[in-house]
Structure formats: structure tokens, C-alpha cells
Design brief:
The chain has 187 residues and is mainly alpha-helical. 59% of the residues lie in helices and 4% in strands.
């Protein structure tokens, strides 16, 4: 697999610029809070899975942990999710999975994200495995030294070995298509 990832739909620079202008209009203070991000992208509070997913993603981009995205964090997030190369997206995905930030994934961390992804993806495909089965299979394929944890190196190497695994680990739930679809909902 190459370093560049092909997207089903591509966001052009003008569309990304439009999202940046919306940020400036909606957040003149320069700080985007989670509830504002949900409003901008039309995430319904009734959609628990989508809401959990956006919260997890939001936290991964809040690099200074102040519970808001400043403009630079927002632009970096858009560029990574919508235009980033495969290696950068996998490193970001690892960061999302690694909830405690210790640089290693345990089964609880992986199960947490897999539960969210399974609920979202089940609407788009036939996922015939439970989150526990998915987690066990990920560890079987990726945990090379069988220590019950996945390092960034194991994560990166494992993801590129298997298409099924890559689909789960890179957290791709068609982010570009989702943003394009939800741009229409923007105020």
C-alpha cells in the first residue's frame, strides 16, 4: 500500500477555505468548543455514536487540552482528516485510540473506539463481528510481541498488512464524504 490514500471524494482547497471562513464567522473569539463544532457540522445530539465519534475526534485535535480548538488546531485537523497522507492519518488514529496517552494501546482503549466505529459502520456495511471479536482479531494480527499492548510501530506495520485491519485502524468512516455532506447543513 502506498503512502498516499485515495479518498472517495476529494475536498478542494476552496471548500476547505470555506470551512475556515465559517470557523471565523461562528467563532470570532478564535476558540471553537465541542458544542459549536457539533452545531457547525450538524451532528444531532440524538445520534449517540456520531456524537461520541466527534467528541473523540475533537479531543484528539485539542493539542493543548484546553477543551477548545483554536484556529490553527482546526486548520491542522481539516488538512489531516481531509487531505493527509496515510502515514500521518495512521499516527493520528493511534493517538485517538490511545486515550491515556501512554504510547501503547490496551484492549480497553481499542474496544472503546471499535464500539463507536461498529455502531457507525453497521449502518453502512454488514459488520458481522462483535466489538470484542474485532478487538481480539486486531490484537491477534497486530500485537507482534504478544504483550497485550500495541505500540505505534506495531500499529503502523499491522495496519498496512491487511485491508480489513487498515479500514478499522485508520478510523476512516468516509470523513471527506461526511464533511461534504454536512457542509450543506452549515449555517
Amino acid at each position: 500500500m502506498g503512502q498516499e490514500e485515495s479518498h472517495n471524494e476529494e475536498m478542494n482547497p476552496a471548500q476547505i477555505q470555506e470551512l475556515c471562513i465559517i470557523f471565523m464567522k461562528e467563532c470570532p473569539s478564535g476558540a471553537l468548543h465541542l458544542h459549536e463544532l457539533k452545531r457547525i457540522f450538524g451532528v444531532a445530539s440524538s445520534s449517540e455514536e456520531e456524537s461520541l465519534y466527534i467528541e473523540t475526534i475533537f479531543r484528539s485535535f485539542d493539542t493543548n487540552r484546553d477543551n477548545r480548538l483554536d484556529f490553527l488546531e482546526y486548520v491542522a485537523a481539516l488538512n489531516l482528516v481531509l487531505r493527509g497522507n496515510l502515514e500521518d492519518r495512521l499516527k493520528w488514529s493511534f493517538k485517538v485510540y490511545d486515550r491515556d496517552g501512554n504510547g501503547r494501546l490496551d484492549k480497553q482503549e481499542v474496544k472503546h473506539i471499535i464500539r463507536i466505529l461498529c455502531k457507525i459502520k453497521v449502518q453502512r456495511s454488514n459488520m458481522d463481528m462483535t466489538p470484542n471479536e474485532v478487538c481480539d482479531r486486531i490484537f491477534e494480527l497486530v500485537d507482534q510481541n504478544k504483550d497485550g499492548q500495541i505500540s505505534l510501530t506495531e500499529f503502523m506495520e499491522g495496519a498496512q498488512k491487511d485491508e480489513w485491519l487498515m479500514d478499522l485502524l485508520k478510523l476512516d468512516v468516509n470523513a471527506t464524504g461526511w464533511v461534504i455532506q454536512n457542509c450543506c447543513k452549515l449555517p
